[in-house]
């Protein structure tokens, strides 16, 4: 019976058909290498970032010696220009330290609340809201810092300007909080239930169990959370750009305006002619940021590795 | 007697300590509440249909945010279109093809590290590679490519999670029917993982639309008299618009209302997208019959 023109007779495949079959066979075998290549995309992206930023950064050594790069003065447009990055490295360290002083205790305590105490419904709500806190764009944090936090700091300490390291630290701390809290919560939840049960069975209170058993067992993960929170604070651009005051002067005071590495790049790139010493110097700031990122992520990764082994 | 007192002391310590934990959580959420309340109460007044659909006027001291809004949508959509195929491919490799080993470990570390690279560094890369080396210039395309790289790790992670949530038996069913591995993935695994992948897309949109630093040198313009007509044109973008109005304008105070309005629109978009992601996730979980 002929249905839809099918004759039931098997013909030798035509040349085009045969070619199509070969193509299909190749296609069947191609999926593995194709997906392997796609799998490498993030590594390739990292490599490209590294190569291009470093390539644009290295020519700065035509204008400044490696030790000059760590000098205390940043005057990119003076003659001769000075490219001492120390003020910006110090500023980045200062605001990051301030942010962590706020974010670590609050983040660990929130994590403790969510993981150890809160009933399930409250836990999900708190986690969702913390997620929202991390979803707010950094320019909005910057705007809030500029219009609310900085004037508040200015009034409280009676300063000429509220745009300083303290205001930046407050905003950055708030921004790093969800990162620290959610990673710390993961670390606490990963502690085996048996640890808690053993502690409670020995007569310890819930608080003693939390503080002396759960937190110490989660040490690696908590440390990793703190380190990634630090990475978030170091790399944040818009909020510090709008709130920290942007003065590239070496200082250790929280009440002075400061300029971080990120803010320096964002602020000056528009004024730096392409290919100029200043342009290359700004890419060098980017290269320094990449090094800090690699160091913090490496550290966090190492601690995360310890958590996994611990769980096994 | 002594024993009983110490038991009570223990109880007091516990209540105080746990209260502090609770207070810390409330403090963080309180800050979120203050920010949202502040922005909604101040920005609500500026919001109108006209604000969303007209160009800025009088040197950006009046008028609306239409071109910035449209520009942000172009940039964000472009970023997803460019990054999603790569991210999906990477996730399929990690879940469906790879075996645990040094490659997978290296890729994981790569994804995590990429997620930790500061956004301004993506801006530098976009400037050096897309704008200068490839000669694309400051444009929607260069900005979308840069934002695409930025959201790549987020898309890979969410897609990976979505694929992992599909039970093994689905794959075994497909393979047992004689389908090839790729056909099984395409016809069975990917459709089953779709809600999770969509969640990732929505979160990626939400992340990309708020980013400023990556587009500062690669796409964003202070002001354009018209919408971009090609992917090679500069665009205005909402977060950059907010930044410029709040800091660089010599009369920032004159535009306060416009700024609050623009911030409210941006926050509104991000919140709606995140709410969408939460609902999608809940829907995916409920729909799951396996």
Could you walk me through the main structural features you see in this protein, from its secondary elements to its overall organization?
The complex is a heterodimer of chains A (312) and B (290). Chain A is mainly alpha-helical and 312 residues long. Chain A has 13 helices and two strands, in the order αααββαααααααααα. Chain A has helices at 15-39, 41-57, 66-69, 86-117, 120-135, 138-157, 165-189, 193-201, 206-217, 219-235, 238-243, 261-268, 277-311, and strands spanning 74-75, 82-83. A two-stranded antiparallel sheet of chain A has the order 1-2. In chain A, a hairpin with a 6-residue loop joins β1 (74-75) and β2 (82-83). The model of chain A is unreliable at 1-8 (pLDDT under 50). With 290 residues, chain B is mainly alpha-helical. Chain B folds into two domains: 2-46; 49-287, MetI-like fold (Orthogonal Bundle), CATH 1.10.3720.10. Chain B is built from eleven helices and two strands, in the order ααββααααααααα. A two-stranded antiparallel sheet of chain B has the order 1-2. In chain B, β1 and β2 form a beta hairpin. Chain B starts with a helix and ends with a helix. At the A-B interface, α1, α2, α4, α5 and α6 of A face α1, α3, α4, α5 and α6 of B.
